[in-house]
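Entry 14. Structure prediction run on the chain below.
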Amino acid sequence: MMKVIAILGSPRKKGNSSFLAGRFLATAGAKGAETSAYFLEEMSYKGCKACGACKKTHESCVIKDDLTSVLDEMRLADIIIYAAPNYFADVSGQFKLFLDRTYSLLTPEFMTGANRSRLAEGKHLVFILTQGAPDSVFKEIPEKYSHLKEYFNFSGFHVIHGGNLFAPGDAEKCPELIEKINQLASDLLN
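Output returned:
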């Protein structure tokens, strides 16, 4: 059975990025996948402290908080969804704090070695970014994070970029965006 997890970086539980991630999870669940979501806004966690323990003495982050289980689940998942809104020309602060902690999932030789990641090969990353601006702008945000494919040996880096989504609920009124997310979920679970 495939395992799909979503890390929700919006401070709004019913925000547009969370809605789209939920659509992906619903399609995956209907196809028999085990699914779970982590709403960062309700979790208690800290950012990376740059202590280096994950590269010197441990194979995981030494900070023990609510992200510990999320990082562990990433090791088990086949598909990982990163869902965040564009806040001030980048992902939300909640999401960035989480993303910095994924540094612990890289090996000590991730910059120069052949084995960069502590995650098993073959996983897919789905990057959902929503914003009030048109989706023709801020394309550099998902592009900026595309290096994650190589660092973590993801088999695929799939971007869903939704624009003109000003208020919570706007994504629900975009059938083409919903179809795109449902199709991606179907394709990855076949």
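The mean pLDDT is 96.
Filed with the rest of this week's runs.
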